[in-house]
Amino acid sequence: MTGAAKRIGLEILGWTLLLLGVAAIFLPGPGLLGIFAGLALLSQQYDWAERRVEPVRIRALLGAAEGVETWPRIVASCLGALVLAGCGVLWIIKPPAPDWWPLSDTWWLPGGIWTGVTQVASAFIAVGLIVYSYRRFHGRPDEVEELRSAIRRDKEG
């Protein structure tokens, strides 16, 4: 692969991951992870992206750490992943619209099978991130405080 082709491929992948990450902030999915991955790839070509990689990485790690600080948060995160997987399975199965559904049947579970597949995949990613976060941050308040300090330093400087 030539250097130009590799650069263009990485740039397309970076922009795609960045846009998917932004969309995943509002839709089910690992938004900050996608944004970070996109920025990391784009940082090889653009100075503006390079300046934003570290702040996004630190905020993503802080969100992961805060998600496993207490058992209620861990349980809520796991239940959220389970509900997301269940919704994905529902989308994949696509049962007929129930009688109580007030809109047209075409608005019942829109998006088709791939919406369900991405929801199930997002649930697996979420479980993996919960396990990672638990192993790295649970019971280690000093590491969480270090992330918070890094964010404060970033805001000041």
Automatic annotation (TrEMBL):
The chain crosses the membrane at residues 12-42, 74-93, 113-132. Keywords: Membrane, Transmembrane, Transmembrane helix. Pfam families: PGPGW (PF09656). This is TIGR02611 family protein. It comes from Nocardioides cavernae.
